[in-house]
Amino acid sequence: LKTENSFKACYGRVKDTVNFGKENGATAIGIADINNTYGHYQFNKECESEGIKPIFGVRLSTLSNGSKQRTANLPWVYLAKNDDGLVEIYKLVNRAYDRFYYTPRIFVDDALAVSENVVVLSPFKIDIDVLRAGKEPYNGAFLGGLVYYDIRTGKTIAVGDNHYITPDQRPVYQTLGGASKRGDDYIYSFDNKTYP
Questions:
Q1: 43 and 14 in contact (C-beta within 8 Å)?
Q2: Contact 46/15 with Cβ under 8 angstroms?
Q3: pTM to 2 decimals?
């Protein structure tokens, strides 16, 4: 899940996310915010207080090696299996900011270099040998955004792409995240209507 730390992509406070999970019988909850791990500390505290297992992750733009493309439309998801995997994720985030070009980014070689302590999920079904050969990581079959592909096991995994926790939070999300730049103009969306 994303939290409020995925700027303009989600309205879901960490505490509310954990409470919602607890109310609905969750025994484990994972977060993977876009380009950052700011929420991990608070998420861990909230999960401990509610007796829920935290799963830590991050969503990062993963591009072809050396790419100068401005951004990747669909970030890959990296989930830590254990503390060693979490350290690797923090190093990936640092590397992504070291390579900042319009947006934080890592390259396919970085994704392939992580150990078995990290689950690497791509929004595209791709052959790992194709990636190793240096091919474009976004040439595979798009899986629809709610299903990701584990590049090591070849399994597809359902994921949540939340923008808010409960339906009554939708207007807040739309207000905070509704403005987007298109060309020279800003577009504002609210209640499924677009305002130029």
A1: yes
A2: yes
A3: 0.82
Residue 35 DSSP one-character state: S
Kind and range of the H or E run holding 55 = strand 53-60
**CA atoms of 146 and 4, how far apart (whole Å):** 19
Indicate if the alpha-carbon torsion angle 105, 72, 176, 38 is positive or negative.
negative
Task: Tell me the residue type at 4.
Answer: E
Question: Which of 52, 41, 58, 57 shows the shortest CA–CA distance to 18?
Answer: 52
Q: Which stretch of 17-31, 34-48, 82-96, 135-149 has the lowest confidence by average pLDDT?
A: 135-149
Residue at token pair 């939290």: 3
Percent of the chain having pLDDT more than 70?
A: 76
- Which two structure tokens, joined as six digits, stand for 47? 């999960």
Q: DSSP secondary-structure letter at 157?
A: E
Among 196, 59, 91, 157, which Cα is nearest to 187's? 196
